[in-house]
Amino acid sequence: MRPTLAILSVILLPAIAGASPLIDSRAVPAEVSRPLAATVRADRARRPEAYRRVADLEGLRPEFYRRTRAGRPSVALELRAMGPSALLPMLDALALSGYPRDLSDDERAALRIGLLETVGNLGDPRALPVLRGVFATATEALELRASARGLARVCQERDRRALMTATAAPQRAAAAAALGLCASPEAASWMVAQLESTSDPAHAAALAAGLAEGASSWARPGARSRIDAPLRARAARAIIRRWSELPAQRPALGIAALSMGGAEVLAAVRDALRVAPAEARPGLIAIERSLERSLSRDPRR
Fold first, then answer.
1. Are residues 188 and 107 in the same domain?
2. What is the pLDDT of residues 6-48, one digit of tens each?
3. Minimal CA–CA distance to 176: which of 200, 208, 151?
4. Does residue 208 sit within a domain?
5. Domain check: are 61 and 9 in the same one?
6. Backbone φ/ψ region at 98: left (φ over 0), alpha (ψ -120 to 50), beta
């Protein structure tokens, strides 16, 4: 009898507690919520323990997180450790059932962002309807970043195009920084063209960060798409040229250049040094030396 009651309590707990979804209801229209709710009901009956774990996170307990160095709620590592089997319980908490106790504003924000990041990092197409809704409706930078990265990680054509055509400033910044995860020649070529032409310094920095993050997968054996050497060289030249042109963005663009690394970036830096004004030379020399050290440790790059 007790095991049956325990299972029923997990199934009914959100309704009993009056919990609400963690994301804006506009992100989960009926055509998304109805099939998801049916899938979750069946899954919850089979695997109640998975839902109990998501509904009882240590990182949301004040008696725990107040003793940590940060002193604030944090659930990202805890959720990540649950792995792919927790996808549906996490989507349930985000879009349907919420959390079965009242949360402070900080706790609720930590849970919402932690769930979005973890769901997106799993790269499971079942999460796409929710991630699309969040990206289309959210205004908070962290929500947009997490949802954009989740869409880019799966990188279906409709989502790649949605990221490439985002025009509102918050969405555009999140999309530009995420698109490198697509490891797609089309996305990479678009990002390079945007970086070469944009007049928005912040957009340039976001594009450079996205290109740098994607660079590690461009030539990886077995990658979904291969980015050819001319495009890699063009990306490197674009980052270094914008570094020279946008002094206020140099810290971010310098980090992108070093993160991308490789012979193409080193060649772009050396070309820039030939014509650089005196004020830019120390920074370029510092980047050159860092790249030389990196290449000496990993000659394959």
1. no
2. 444 444 444 444 568 999 999 999 999 999 999 999 999 999 9
3. 208
4. yes
5. yes
6. left
pLDDT digits (tens, 9 = 90+) for 38-76: 999 999 999 999 999 999 999 999 999 999 999 999 999
What residue type is assigned to position 221 of the chain?
Answer: P
The DSSP code sequence of 5-68 is HHHHHHHHHHHHHT---SS-GGGS-HHHHHHHHHHHHHHHHH-HHHHHHHTS-GGG-HHHHTTS
Per the structure block, which two tokens stand in for 11?
């199934």
Rounded Cα distance, 233 and 202, in Å: 22
**What's the CA gap between 165 and 145, in Å, rounded?**
16
Q: Which residues span the domain enclosing 271?
A: 184-301
Tokens of 236: 């490197």
As a whole number, the mean pLDDT across the chain is 90
